[in-house]
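User: Hello, can you help with two protein structures?

Assistant: Certainly.
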Amino acid sequence: MSGENTVNGLIIAAPSSGSGKTVVTLGILAHLKAHGVRVASMKSGPDYIDPAFHARATGLACFNVDSWAMRASTLMAAAATAGEDADLVVCEGVMGLFDGASATEGSTADIARRTGWPVILVVDSRAQGASAAALVKGFDTFRDSVNIAGVIFNRVGSARHQRVIREAMAYAVPHIPVLGMIPMEPGLELPSRHLGLIQAAEHHGLEALMAHAGHVIGRHVDMDALQALATGWSASGQVKPLQPLGQKIAVARDEAFAFAYPMVLQGWRNQGAEISFFSPLDDETPAADADAVFLPGGYPELHAYRLSSAERFLAGLRDAAGRGAIVYGECGGYMVLGRGMQDADGTTHAMAGLLPLGTSFERRKLSLGYRRLVQIADTPLGAVHSRFRGHEFHYATVTNEGPGAHLFEAQDADGAKLGRMGLVNQNVFGSFIHLIDREPKD
């Protein structure tokens, strides 16, 4: 994709997390696809779980978009790629509409400003009546560059509750249509764990849930009016956020290693790399001809015994490193490259031993936030002083890290210094950071 493409889109956002926007988004995607609309999706922010749900609903890869962590050209190219064969792109927001890396940067509202796409606000109305309209009015007037084009009220109660909300909306914000009122219905909840939702691959009733959500949306939301609100954005370019690790990259993919950003993988393909997949949990090895191996993040701590017993996988990883292939790990993948991982019960499980690293989930500590990164060692990702942006989210603590060369000098989104992160051992390297893009310059 290199030519300009008019991408029709809209954004599903909410005043806060927990409003139900993910299930509403899945219901919208499922309904549109079932009715013959070529629908694609995107996800605002660094989340790596919701996009997998989107992909199951649409059958297409879901790209993340992030106004803080991405260059403007990367964000535009992501939208252009998503909309290439789609009638409509639905972008799900992150947290509350105006929440991001800081009070003024990195929010879903910034995506709306850049794309010009209208915002559909999903409001949880369980504990409010007319006050829900006051909330919508506040969001409508908070930032002039954001167009709140419609509202879906979620978890609505009685017929009287609906009437009170509609009357208050007609009084407070008559120019914003109420697109729907979704009642509190059983079977519309997604289970969660410590890093967010249970993964799509683990949710065995997901198809039934999405079909149910699609039927609920069809009954209670004016889908014709919603689609009519979409606007076009002239987007172009190919996604190329990171340099490829090699020409033939073997990527670990299963329930323990599911947090690879689809846009990063597509970016490597766009630069001529071939991508193959293998499952460490099934004791598979990287492809024999791979000149690079990527272990993404995920939930290795939930499968520590199984991974430590996967002798073919661990031997194949060591063999790849021994023959000179690049081996790179992020977050959970970084931990697996270490010497050992301690589970929540305090049992230590031997890992690949390719980096001088020990980690523990017995002593849990949350590390969360955007990261500015300067590379302090040459790697295929770039030379010394290459700059990146990424995201860190884990509960592991480091029991030992080193001795050895570090990979990054890190700062948080506000510029506070966090010190050195990650390790490099010749052709093996990694860190707890999920890299998103090179440092924005435009």
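That covers the first. Now for the second protein you mentioned:
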Amino acid sequence: MEWLDYLLFFIVGLGLVFTVVRFLVGPNLGDRVVSLDTFNMIVIGVIALLALLLGNELYLDIAIVYAILAFLETIVFARYLEGSNNGNR
């Protein structure tokens, strides 16, 4: 790996740290859900970068499955927040 690859992974790792901090410190549940979704998108990007660097197409399949599961997770949390704001929970 070249130095640019290391720099790229450092910047992406820094983004992951910031999203974890927002998840832990977030003042309300909505901020935490958004940070979790951002975390998932960054992880999908990391998996795609690994597929590019390692030249293995299997990682792209893993990234697609992870993206589908992350989307469903976001929908479930949004439905939960919608129900808790209407007084149903």
